[in-house]
Amino acid sequence: MRETQNRSTCILVVDDDEDIRLTLTDQLLAMGYEVYQTTNGCEALDILSRRTIDGMFLDVRMPVMDGWTMLEQFHQRHAHIPVVVMSADNPGKTAPKAREYGAQGYLPKPYNFSHVQATYYRIFGELPTDHTENMVLALELPKCGTDES
Questions:
Q1: For strand 83-87 and strand 105-108, is the pairing parallel, antiparallel, or unpaired?
Q2: What range defines the domain where residue 71 resides?
Q3: Is residue 5 part of a domain?
Q4: 51 near 96, Cβ under 8 Å?
Q5: Is residue 1 part of a domain?
Q6: Of the N and C termini of the chain, which has fewer Cβ atoms inside 10 Å?
Q7: DSSP structure string for 23-88
Q8: For 49-105, what is each residue's pLDDT tens digit?
Q9: What HEC string does 108-140 produce?
């Protein structure tokens, strides 16, 4: 698990794909946030029992405990924490399902750094440090579950 010190906002990244998990972790660290990362829902719930987090990026297809099962258990205790579901699956099916499970957003894979920044701003409600240009991008992206392109 990678951790940073003295950060105000803490994000949990949950994805079994090491490249995606580490890349997203590095991107969020570069934005100035404290980041915890793990490989499955079971480990994520363990982290949540020991740490306070402000938001989570969660893959849905993982071993041990998938993202959907993790979301069900997560929202029983942490419904106030925003979650962004990540998936390479069909967004027309996965994004609405993510909303049904209580997620506030959806990030399709593969994604780029601008999508991470814009999604973060739109869902978590704060602008990354010194990245004011992302406000425009965030406003241009459609909300999950809409028919906009």
A1: parallel
A2: 10-140
A3: no
A4: no
A5: no
A6: C
A7: HHHHHHHHTT-EEEEESSHHHHHHHHHHS--SEEEEES--SSS-HHHHHHHHHHHHTTS-EEEEES
A8: 999 899 999 999 988 988 889 988 887 787 788 999 998 888 888 888 888 888 888
A9: ECCCCHHHHHHHHHHHHCCCCCCCCCHHHHHHH
Question: Residue 94's closest CA among 60, 136, 139?
Answer: 60
CB contact at 8 A, 128 and 134: yes
Domains: count for the chain: 1
Q: Write the pLDDT tens digit of every residue in 129-139.
A: 443 333 233 33
Is-contact 61 107, C-beta < 8 A? no
16 in a domain, yes or no? yes
For residues 42 and 64, the answer to whether their CB atoms sit within 8 Å is yes
Query: Is residue 122 domain-resident?
Result: yes
Residue 28: give its domain's CATH number: 3.40.50.2300
